[in-house]
Amino acid sequence: MPTSEAQVTVSLVIPTWQRRDLVLRLLDLLETQTRRADEVIVVDNGSTDGTAEAVGARATVLRLDRNCGFAHAVNLGIQAARGEWVGIVNNDVEPKPDWLKILSLSKSSFVTGKLLNLSEPQLLDGTYDLLSQVAMPWRAGSGRPDQSTTNYNNRIQFASWTAALYRRDVFQRVGLLDETFGSYYEDVDFGLRCAQAGIIGEYEPKAVALHAGSSTFGAWRPETVRLLTRNHRLLIKKHFGPQRDWSTSCRLFVSRVLWAILALRHGQLAAWWAGCRESLPEVRYQNDPALLRNVLKESEAELYRLQNETGFDWYWRMYFNLFPLR
Known about the structure:
Largest sheet: 10 strands, mixed
Shape: globular
Order of helices and strands: EHEHEHEEHEEEEEEHHEHHHHH
Distance between the termini: 60 Å
Number of domains: 2
Helix content: 25-40%
Radius of gyration: 19 Å
Number of helices: 11
Strand content: 15-25%
Number of strands: 12
């Protein structure tokens, strides 16, 4: 019997492109949850591997005729969802049986849990996002051993959309993902918009899932690096506006140089350059600059603290050497 709109309290949106095997594995795991979703929506972003046919009646399938990017696919899923909670789950996530039950008990506006590395479960894939003062993100704890620094409940400003739940009214207040990002940093942009609206979320470490990571493009593939480079430029343009103080401009320049060096170390300087040269769409700047500055300063301070506790990545070691935390 179809579930009525009044009965739907948790909807899960799964955007996917190719990788039918991952989607079917995720659907299997969702059916074993101690608190099952009331509605599951698979948004097939133009797959040619029979994903939609394989899903069949196990979920609602929204089919696109081409790959329109993560943001567009997720937005379609959110608009179709009927739940009070709307969750976004990547196709390469494998949630533990109590994952959804724990997250759905949250009293916050949005909530995310702990992600472990699928191939090395003793290591963190990530938790929640932290940003520098020029909005360069770091997934808190990424690559570190699963330990006490990430095992406490925490109020957060930024959640990765790898696996997170949002209350419906957040979208009513903030809107949907900005589709000009396509894929990458669209969730960072959404978090910054939540910050401007005074919306705070929660990190719940007891809600655990495994994550393969970069299953579509690959972590250091040219397309990934190009999109990351291009979209960070778009993020800056959108949230920092045309008039930037000297300190922000200096940090931004250094951040870009460090990212270029990191891309070079991975053999992707050409992809970085392509992302730098790509033209950006026009955006409307509406931020409160003082609020943005305070949010990012607080986030950067926590980023430094966790990096200092667990060992600095190369990028962040260079960044904080040049811009010591005050």
